[in-house]
Q: What sequence folds into this?
């Protein structure tokens, strides 16, 4: 296949989210937005202007935010509960567990500015634990789209899916990678580039870095497979097993702790189904120092060059086993 | 249904609850006995419900926020026809759908899963708000414990309910004055409740929560603001040796105590 080249223009995926929400909201009066004072940071100003009564703002009260969302769904509405991912998942985790996942409430949880999007604001505002916290909950799909096209497709899918969803969005600009008209399929990875030396798997803001890393590797004559794996739960077992069998090594990268996130979810499959050498890139179990998201991703080895270097090391481990 | 008939039903529910706790060897009998009169008034008089259509969109919503008294709800739901009466005997047994806290995906009539305290009221606020947004005429009722009001999430929801003008929402606080390990007073005394709720913009009614002739009119009261009923109840109500002692939060009677309790409740039938 032809390798995907990232477009030069960068997009804030919140724009794609609200564009689809407003389009769907026009046809479906049951769609309501619920927020914790986060009208601006969730970019809900347009929604509010169109349907002020359908914007339910509970104020700075995240436990009520999620509980009220569950109640709105019980009353027949389709709530999109929006908040900064760090507060939405951290402050209200028990509400997400009991009121949403265990109760199987048809609520869409939209975690805004996830990962280290709040950069210099520091670890209180980073959401680099949310995959770990949410992916252990039954009934709750966990999805982190890689670009504005996948964000739009995932929002459209979430609205039509009958059950809870955690959609993890960022505000950090990312290039479009997926083709226009892309349809989101839960639990299905997207092949962005094929190769047999190693598989690079990422999601969210890191996928485009993987694509660029694969281009660097190609210059060295190393052909890497690149998978975009937006769905962290349910994980795409088939794609992971094929990657392990076809390429013999898997490198993952994510804007999340290396503990319990995408890499861990993939490792769980690899260990059980097709053991091969793996390397998990992410935030290495520390509270990050001051810096922007881009700076910190580079700092933690997730620049395209850093990823390529890790891939070369991993491939060496693969060869040394044979 | 009139208060006398409701009293009789409440005593029957108490007896069945006691028997189930004794047989299962577990339960939260003190808080069950304090709340059963309120549950009876709701399910046999106040709530607009259809047991054969538990998901009817116009049904009134009831949320048992003090989910640990699930057994009292199960017995009430069974008596009202939501689940078979004989199913109560499966309480806490392996694979029974009647576990220690109610599950809305398994038990018809349960609206949302509760157990961790401080969850029911925010969800009930969402239900009442949904009715406002859609024009639905159902009302939403939620029952919390008094100790449970120590959870901050309740106060987030109380503020939201007033802000949203939810005159279709009724909060009942089962004010039995005891929590798991001590009295409310010796733990984190939020009582008296009325002034606090009023300060948040709620209407408040104080009643004897074990007296049907006070419970029914309070539940049927309509106003222009969210309504809180502070229901003064007795933990272990109806069983003399359990009443108003912290010991009976989740203790199980022995054979001799069970016999005495059955006799006392039967006498009141």
A:
């Amino acid at each position: 296949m032809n390798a995907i080249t990232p477009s030069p223009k960068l997009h804030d995926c919140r724009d794609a989210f609200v564009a689809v929400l407003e389009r769907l909201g026009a046809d479906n009066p049951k769609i309501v937005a619920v927020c914790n004072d986060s009208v601006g940071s969730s970019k809900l100003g347009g929604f509010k202007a169109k349907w002020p009564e359908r914007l339910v703002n509970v104020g700075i009260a995240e436990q009520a935010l999620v509980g009220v969302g569950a109640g709105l769904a019980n009353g027949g509405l389709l709530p999109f509960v929006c908040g900064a991912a760090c507060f939405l998942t951290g402050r209200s985790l028990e509400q997400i567990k009991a009121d949403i996942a265990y109760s199987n409430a048809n609520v869409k949880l939209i975690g805004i500015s996830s990962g280290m999007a709040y950069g210099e604001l520091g670890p209180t505002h980073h959401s680099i634990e949310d995959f770990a916290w949410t992916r252990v909950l039954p009934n709750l799909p966990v999805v982190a789209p890689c670009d504005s096209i996948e964000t739009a497709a995932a929002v459209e899918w979430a609205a039509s899916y009958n059950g809870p969803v955690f959609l993890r969005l960022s505000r950090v600009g990312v290039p479009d990678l997926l083709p226009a008209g892309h349809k989101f399929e839960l639990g299905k990875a997207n092949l962005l580039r094929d190769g047999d030396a190693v598989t690079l798997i990422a999601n969210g803001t890191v996928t485009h870095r993987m694509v660029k890393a694969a281009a660097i590797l190609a210059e060295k004559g190393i052909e890497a497979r690149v998978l975009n794996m937006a769905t962290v739960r349910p994980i795409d077992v088939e794609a992971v097993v094929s990657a392990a069998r076809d390429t013999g090594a898997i490198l993952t990268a994510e804007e999340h702790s290396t503990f319990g996130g995408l890499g861990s979810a993939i490792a769980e499959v690899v260990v059980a189904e097709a053991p091969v050498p793996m390397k998990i890139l992410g935030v290495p179990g520390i509270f990050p120092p001051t810096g922007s998201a881009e700076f910190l991703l580079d700092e933690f080895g997730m620049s395209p060059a850093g990823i390529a270097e890790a891939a070369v090391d991993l491939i060496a481990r693969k060869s040394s086993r044979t | 249904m009139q208060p006398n008939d409701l009293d009789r039903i409440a005593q029957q529910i108490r007896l069945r609850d006691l028997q189930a706790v004794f047989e299962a060897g577990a339960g939260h009998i003190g808080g069950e006995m304090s709340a059963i009169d309120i549950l009876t008034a709701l399910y046999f008089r106040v709530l607009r419900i259809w047991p054969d259509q538990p998901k009817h969109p116009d049904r009134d919503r009831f949320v048992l926020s003090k989910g640990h008294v699930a057994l009292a709800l199960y017995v009430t739901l069974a008596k009202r026809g939501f689940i078979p009466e004989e199913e109560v005997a499966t309480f806490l047994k392996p694979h029974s759908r009647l576990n220690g806290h109610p599950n809305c995906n398994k038990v018809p009539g349960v609206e949302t899963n509760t157990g961790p305290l401080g969850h029911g009221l925010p969800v009930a606020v969402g239900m009442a708000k949904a009715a406002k947004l859609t024009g639905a005429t159902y009302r939403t009722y939620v029952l919390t414990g008094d100790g449970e009001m120590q959870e901050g999430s309740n106060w987030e929801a109380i503020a939201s309910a007033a802000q949203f003008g939810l005159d279709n929402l009724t909060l009942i606080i089962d004010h039995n004055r005891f929590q798991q390990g001590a009295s409310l007073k010796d733990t984190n005394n939020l009582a008296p409740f009325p002034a606090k709720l009023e300060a948040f913009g709620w209407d408040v009614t104080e009643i004897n929560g074990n007296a049907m002739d006070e419970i029914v009119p309070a539940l049927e009261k309509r106003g222009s603001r969210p309504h809180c009923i502070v229901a003064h109840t007795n933990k272990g109500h109806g069983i003399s040796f359990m009443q108003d002692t912290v010991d009976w939060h989740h203790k199980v009677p022995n054979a001799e105590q069970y016999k005495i309790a059955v006799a006392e409740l039967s006498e009141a039938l």
Summary: Residues 48 and 83 of chain A are 15 Å apart (CA to CA). The interface with chain B takes residues 32, 53-54, 56, 58-59, 61, 63-64, 66-77, 79, 94-95, 98-99, 102-105 of chain A (CB under 8 Å). The longest strand of chain A covers residues 250-257.
